[in-house]
Amino acid sequence: MKALIIDDERLARKELDGLLQKYDTIQVVGEAANADEAEERIAELSPDLLFLDINMPGRDGFELLGALERVPLVIFVTAYDEHAVRAFQVNALDYLVKPIDPVRLDLAVARLPVPRESGVPERTVLGLEDQIFLKDGERCWFVALKDIRLFESEGNYVRVRFADQKPLVLRSLNKLEEKLDPHVFFRANRKHILNLRYVESIQPWFSGGLNVKLRTGEEIEVSRRQTSRFKELMSL
């Protein structure tokens, strides 16, 4: 598993690199001292795992994750104590508090999944198991695309609906649509992209459109322009 260490402190990067040398399943492929440098390294090296510091000059670790189209596995490395970490520890693989305890690192590494097969070409479309990072105010989430039922445009922002959550994030619905599997995520109208796997019922609607009800109760109008495509995908 290819890992990238991101920390503005050079000694902290070197220390973690040394601690990781004993793990046969982890290959440290690079380092970065800030978010800008990390974004370049991620694009260049396609790491499977990030050891990510939070407080860095310029953009912090959260802002870096928010700029990525596909988020690798993340183990946070932070100077915060355990109580502070709880504010952002939502589905991240793990977190490590500085100075890193080797025993605690063992536990974090033990949580890693089986390394992905090498040589698999980079996909241009996100898969259902891929996760995206969302931040709304002080709250953060890592969420798999399969768990998102609806994207809803609100001006320059997108409301992301999953479980009982609905964070509002600074994203473009058009850009987001380019990265989603069109056989699963359907652009129902100008404002909505819905996950077809959540569709419960379909009814004829005004002007030749359709009214789609999701299992969670939301009702979305499929525009007349999109109705033929929707029927094709749903085999109606």
Q: Give the number of domains.
A: 2
The overall pLDDT average reads: 89
Q: Name the CATH superfamily classification of the largest domain.
A: Response regulator
* CATH topology description of the largest domain: Rossmann fold
Give a quick rundown of the structure.
By secondary structure, the protein is of the alpha/beta class.
Task: Please provide a written account of the structure.
This protein is an alpha/beta fold and 236 residues long. α2 packs across α3. The model has no long low-confidence stretch (mean pLDDT 89). It contains 7 helices and 15 strands. The protein has 2 domains: 109 residues, Response regulator (Rossmann fold); 99 residues, Beta Barrel (OB fold (Dihydrolipoamide Acetyltransferase, E2P)), CATH 2.40.50. The protein is elongated. The longest helix is centred in the N-terminal third of the chain and has 11 residues. The strands form 4 sheets. A 5-stranded parallel sheet has the order 2-1-3-4-5, with helices on both faces.
